[in-house]
Amino acid sequence: MSRPLSDQEKRKQISVRGLAGVENVTELKKNFNRHLHFTLVKDRNVATPRDYYFALAHTVRDHLVGRWIRTQQHYYEKDPKVLLGTPGMGMEEADDWLRYGNPWEKARPEFTLPVHFYGHVEHTSQGAKWVDTQVVLAMPYDTPVPGYRNNVVNTMRLWSAKAPNDFNLKDFNVGGYIQAVLDRNLAENISRVLYPNDNFFEGKELRLKQEYFVVAATLQDIIRRFKSSKFGCRDPVRTNFDAFPDKVAIQLNDTHPSLAIPELMRILVDLERMDWDKAWDVTVRTCAYTNHTVLPEALERWPVHLLETLLPRHLQIIYEINQRFLNRVAATFPGDVDRLRRMSLVEEGAVKRINMAHLCIAGSHAVNGVARIHSEILKKTIFKDFYELEPHKFQNKTNGITPRRWLVLCNPGLAEVIAERIGEDFISDLDQLRKLLSFVDDEAFIRDVAKVKQENKLKFAAYLEREYKVHINPNSLFDIQVKRIHEYKRQLLNCLHVITLYNRIKREPSKFFVPRTVMIGGKAAPGYHMAKMIIRLITAIGDVVNHDPTVGDRLRVIFLENYRVSLAEKVIPAADLSEQISTAGTEASGTGNMKFMLNGALTIGTMDGANVEMAEEAGEENFFIFGMRVEDVDKLDQRGYNAQEYYDRIPELRQVIEQLSSGFFSPKQPDLFKDIVNMLMHHDRFKVFADYEDYIKCQEKVSALYKNPREWTRMVIRNIATSGKFSSDRTIAQYAREIWGVEPSRQRLPAPDEAI
């Protein structure tokens, strides 16, 4: 027998049911059973949890299909501007890790398109012709993307590489059967695996193939849609491209789709027979570029010899774009030869390369960073020359997060407590959270917010015990850093604090310490040795700290394995403290920081990325800010950062480094962490020691406030109330109005069973 539901649980269930918009529960159950039986060919005796998930997914997809078709009909009838936004088409390559299939997607083999590689260029009286190419087919898979309570269902289209049926068919006839099959696999490898590197460019031919494959397929698809005007019609109706930028927006999300610029030029000039200047005007007005990193090793710079082999026509077009661009620069800054060298799309050197960021800026009408400080850094440093040439292009669009997933779905308890005070409209208008400021001194609200947090912590503690067999103190401060493992994100600074705290407990075992559970999670790129060593260090610290009886439950260190969205949905609502501690000037924006703020965690952070705007919204007095500002980092660079100075001056830091060097945390392999120590002492680009002292002091302030639960929760409420700016709704509305030239619509379409 299941226990009866409390009134509060009933209320939550009702609100969630209302949110899902399920009109008929009996019908839903019937469809679920039908899919289990007919789609999955299972009954309840043999069905697995995955089978139940798939049956439910198919049932929900059925629920969306009517809205999906009606949305597409509406777009064809109204003929609005199309982008990767509202109305939207997402772009991504499909991968073979979908071992069990994907119940949400619909294959569209009838819209398969050819993508060309290799070959050579012939210049004829009719213009350039790219000939003798190898063809790979791009097959689309569509996934419905439902809007919130508006009956709109947009499409995310993914592409899968397929070999053509006649692929090397001649080899079959001369007995080369095996080789022909292997060659098919080679063609289909294009969409088989995604490169996992983050913030690091690796100039591999397969990666370049992937980037062009997705771009070429998507652009053909965009142009087919532009030329057709009736729903379901494939015959071209529009042949004039003058209106193309009024109907299509292409947002280049970092430089990975930068080949869209030369590809669109190739289509317009070579295939549509448009003259160069007109084609360039159409291309620039259509494309816009978002930059996501200032780290030099992350910027894409493709070797010319690779482009020459794989995409010979595109290289010619890039050379032409570069020549015309440099002519403009020379006319604006006569005699400034060094400026021409710095701004060229072509980098000379031992290996000649194409700078893809420069291509994106030259070929776009708008360029933006993803937080105010990041956009300013772009203008002052890596893109300074381009800003001086075309200041009107440069904008800022601070990132945002969706409150539907990152509050209502992952933290229903908090969403309910908020809705009881200010209603439910905040879900689609997050600025309404400001109304909560009038409840900062409301004892019942303070109590409710604290209670929800404690429930989330208990739930996550139970999850950790179940999954990791780790027992933690749910009354401890949950101190959390979850993000990709990278030196600039400074998980090592967190580790130094943990060891310092451990040493303090060991030094004064009878003293009261605010109990902490430090959780660090994130993935390391497969080839990133230092990132893997950082993970190894975190687990080694945990092995020592968690088994030291002197420490007890005052300090626990846990590495959260396989960090992913589903784990984030569990850990973020349970967090007390959010660690956002990158070196100032290195984190473009961050979005995890926003998720923690919205879910009632306080932030300890540097003035970097979106932290700056979060502190501005909440008030610096409601943030734990520490460390160097961008200006301080610049001054330190000019003076020369010397880790030894800090090591010599700060005894607690020296003790920690000596423990790492001596094998205290790796007794069986005393030199295990020598690479980490060597990096920190001699070539630390991210200046961990420079912020150590201030970070430790700031963590003491965190512990002091945590001892006062009422004041802690009041600060939490101020943070939640001022997080409205960081809704992705605001971000997308700004892109729409200020870059794409469309007015975002809140229009609700009629449901499939409603009359139009």
UniProtKB/TrEMBL annotation:
Its EC number is 2.4.1.1. GO terms for biological process: glycogen catabolic process. Its cofactor is pyridoxal 5'-phosphate. GO terms for molecular function: glycogen phosphorylase activity; pyridoxal phosphate binding. The modification N6-(pyridoxal phosphate)lysine is found at K595. Pfam families: Phosphorylase. InterPro entries: Glycg_phsphrylas, Glyco_trans_35, Pyridoxal_P_attach_site. The keyword Transmembrane helix does not apply. Homodimer. Homotetramer; to form the enzymatically active phosphorylase A. Allosteric enzyme that catalyzes the rate-limiting step in glycogen catabolism, the phosphorolytic cleavage of glycogen to produce glucose-1-phosphate, and plays a central role in maintaining cellular and organismal glucose homeostasis. This is Alpha-1,4 glucan phosphorylase. The lineage of its organism: Eukaryota, Metazoa, Chordata, Craniata, Vertebrata.
